[in-house]
Amino acid sequence: MSEQDKEQEVVTSGGMSRREFLKAAGAAGAAVGLGVGLSGLLAPEASAWPGSAATTTTTPQATTTTTTAAPPPVTLTEYNQLGLDLESHLYMKTYPIGIKLLKSEAEIPEGAFRPKKDKNEHYGMCQVFALARRQG
């Protein structure tokens, strides 16, 4: 069977197998990633950091180029502190959470969110944990 016959069979049979689809999608993703990476390397514009930044604005009348100075050098301790600050902002503020099983509805604190009664929605346990972590 020739390649053209195989292609025609895939088109007329209504699709392709999951394996064939994943192979094609992986190849397409790799090609797109490679293209984006190469275009970033071959771009004529200077990067904004750590070197100087050049901004070019083109209008029908004139072209303006503005160059700014490089940012001041950052020491290793400053990088470490920035990393710690970023880490503290990214950690979930309510982690870990505690769970208490209640014997009656009377034990529910005033103002507590009850999905089924308040919004008439049913949540799974994983959704409840995620909701508690996000909203406290």
Helix amount, in percent? Answer: 40-55%
Radius of gyration: 28 Å
| Number of continuous helical runs | 5
Structural class: mainly alpha
Strand order of the largest sheet: 1-2
What is the string of SSEs from the N terminus onward? Answer: HHEEHHH
What is the makeup of the main sheet?
2 strands, antiparallel
Question: How many angstroms does the end-to-end distance come to?
Answer: 62 Å
Number of E-state strands: 2
Strand content: 5-15%
Q: Tell me, briefly, the overall form.
A: flat
Give the overall average pLDDT. Answer: 73
Pick out the low-confidence regions: 46-51
What does this structure look like?
This protein is mainly alpha-helical. It has helices at residues 3-12, 18-42, 76-90, 115-119, 125-135, and strands spanning 53-58, 63-68. Among the domains are: 1-39, no CATH class; 94-135, no CATH class. The protein has 5 helices and 2 strands; from the N terminus they run ααββααα. It has a two-stranded antiparallel sheet with strand order 1-2. A hairpin with a 4-residue loop joins strand 1 and strand 2 (63-68). The chain starts with a helix and ends with a helix.
